[in-house]
Every structure is written in C-alpha cells, then in structure tokens.
Design brief:
By secondary structure, this protein is mainly α. The protein contains twelve helices and no strands. The N terminus is likely disordered.
Length: 220
C-alpha cells in the first residue's frame, strides 16, 4: 500500500513540476500558461506554490496579459497564507526577477519581518555588474522606498558608490523617501552633500538626478 501511495504521489509531483516549467518557458502560448495555472490551483501549498512562483521569472511582450497571469498566480499563492511564506522567501533569495515575490511577501509578512527580508537580501557588492545582481538590487531598493525605518538609510548608503547608475539612482530614491517621510537627517545630509559635487561626463546622470531632487526639496 505504501508503495502505491508513494508512486502516485511522485506522479502528482512530476505533473505539478511540468506545469511550473510551462510557466517559465518563453515559447508557450497564453492558453498553455492559463491551463498550467488552473492545474496548480486548489492543491497543497508545497506542491503548487513553488511552481506558481516560476511564472514571475518570465516576462512576455503583451503587458496586460503578463500582468493578468502574474496576478492570478499571486492571488493563488496568497490564498495559502502563511504556508506560502517559506517558498516565497526562498524564491526571493535565488530568482533574478523578484518584484512580484516581494509584493507577495509584503502582503504575507508583518512589517518588521518584511523589512528584515528586504535588508537581508540586498547584495552590496559594489563591483558586481551582472544582470541578476542589478535587477535584484533595484527591485529591493524600489520596495524600500515605501518602508520607513532608521536602519534603512545605513543599509542603503553603500549603494551610492556602486558602478551601476540605475542602482545608484534607486538608492537615492530610497534616501529621498527616508528624508522626506521618515525625517531622516542622515539621508537628507547625504543627498545634500552629493548635490554639491561637480558634474562630469561619468556622473552626469546620477548626479544630475540627485541635484534636481535636492533643489526640488529646497535643501542646502
């Protein structure tokens, strides 16, 4: 009896994994993906959630359809409540595209837990220049713009020296948020000091953006 139960369980797991693989493959049709999502619904969290999370690795050209499918996956993951949390956290640790998993974790976790998740997944390797490193850090920095805590500024400051302008600008946006909404004086002082630096060909985009923000807020 145990053999047969194990056999059918393994078949079920393989079937769910197959559906999950459909959700992350670029060359699939809308109908195939919707069928896969339907197959993954209404089952145990440990079977369905890791597979549904694979949909967030894929970006399709049709924006509205992409958003619709991701929203369907998100709602199904949220329906499992706290049972989804370990799988979402693991996904955020390893996947390249994590904007949607971060959105899900914000809804599942308490405020302090969500903050810890964001800060612990920042990767302040200032010389890293691969796409995954850049995309992950930007997603986390964008999420931190809506989280107000005294520890955020200190954790974000190193990213102002990153090689990538997009990461540096995302970090500036976080500091702006902390300065204006959390009244963080260190964030305000940092942005003001940066704005006094001289523009050159290498820093014009980042520094120009920072100068504009400081001017808008009438600092310094």
């Amino acid at each position: 009896m145990f053999f047969f139960k194990n056999f059918f369980r393994n078949r079920k797991i393989k079937g769910f994994k197959k559906s999950g693989d459909v959700l992350k493959k670029a060359y699939t049709t809308k109908e195939q993906r919707l069928e896969a999502i339907e197959h993954l619904k209404n089952s145990e969290a440990e079977l369905s959630v890791p597979q549904l999370l694979k949909r967030f690795e894929l970006v399709i050209d049709h924006g509205l359809q992409d958003t619709k499918e991701k929203d369907m996956c998100m709602q199904e993951i949220l329906s499992h409540k706290e049972k989804s949390i370990p799988f979402v956290k693991e996904c955020i640790k390893i996947q390249k595209r994590i904007s949607w998993p971060l959105r899900i974790s914000e809804k599942l976790l308490k405020k302090n837990e969500y903050l810890e998740l964001l800060l612990s997944n920042l990767e302040p390797d200032l010389i890293a220049f691969d796409d995954a490193h850049i995309e992950r850090n930007i997603a986390i920095l964008n999420a931190l713009k809506d989280v107000y805590d005294k520890n955020v500024t200190e954790k974000v400051l190193p990213f102002l020296k990153h090689r990538n302008d997009d990461i540096k600008i995302a970090a500036v946006e976080v500091l702006l948020s902390q300065a204006t909404k959390n009244k963080d004086e260190l964030a305000k002082k940092t942005l003001t000091l940066i704005s006094k630096e001289e523009l050159n060909d290498e820093n014009s985009r980042f520094l120009g953006h920072t100068k504009n923000l400081v001017s808008q807020n009438k600092w310094g």
